[in-house]
Amino acid sequence: MSLLIIPKLICAAIIALPGYLPVPNQERTVLADLKQNQQDITLSAATKPVQGMYSGITVTWNNQTKLFPWENISEPAFYPELVTANIDGKAQDELIIILTTGKGTGVRDSAIHVLQEDWTEIPVGDAIEKARNALSSVYKEHTATVEYTINIDGKKYVYSYPMDGSGTWFEEASVGLILRYRVQDNKLIAEIPVQVSPGTYTGSIEVEFREYRGKLIPSEVSYIEDP
């Protein structure tokens, strides 16, 4: 065989490698790991974040590795969360990866990815849209107080606050500035606080997901009032 042909064959083989094979070994920062139920899972990223964000996250799952174009805040307090659970109700557990992609006063953005062992990702529906569709409110100003009458999924709640209790009161109760996820009893739940000012919360709308035609869609809505 000609020596000129050999490099071409090597290049062709590299191009044909499936995406789940190990990526080249390089210095990385471990963001999360999970070792339980015969699962060995690690999330890692480049050691040098850019503008406070890690971009490009590698998932190592039982000795197979794949790089994803995901982002997460570089502060350790906001590192990703890993959970394995059977949230689609089918044969095997899924890997649930919860990322924090933004934060600030009265703001927290999260992203979620649900992977199966063959690296197939299960799409997750929009919980914030579901919460917004379940929420309506009326805002009233009185001499020394502000009042919100909030309707959530057909139930009414009334809240009153001192006028000077916040520098800014929203004209209506708002959701979407903060989004968190959790897994409980093999169920995926989104927690979405209801805000009437940047720092004032009446409670949280919780959206539970269920599997439907290969997707996780927002299903049941409940409301948990703050103490």
Overview of the structural elements:
This protein is mainly β and 227 residues long. Helices cover 8% and strands 56% of the residues. It has helices at residues 5-15, 127-134; strands spanning 28-36, 39-46, 53-61, 64-73, 81-85, 94-104, 107-115, 121-122, 135-141, 145-152, 155-162, 180-184, 187-197, 200-212, 215-225. Strands 1-2-3-4 form a four-stranded antiparallel beta sheet, with no helix packed on it. A four-stranded antiparallel beta sheet has the order 5-6-7-8, with no helix packed on it. Strands 12-13-14-15 form a four-stranded antiparallel beta sheet, covered by helices on one side. The radius of gyration is 23 Å and the shape is globular. The termini are far apart. Mean pLDDT is 88; it is low at 1-23.
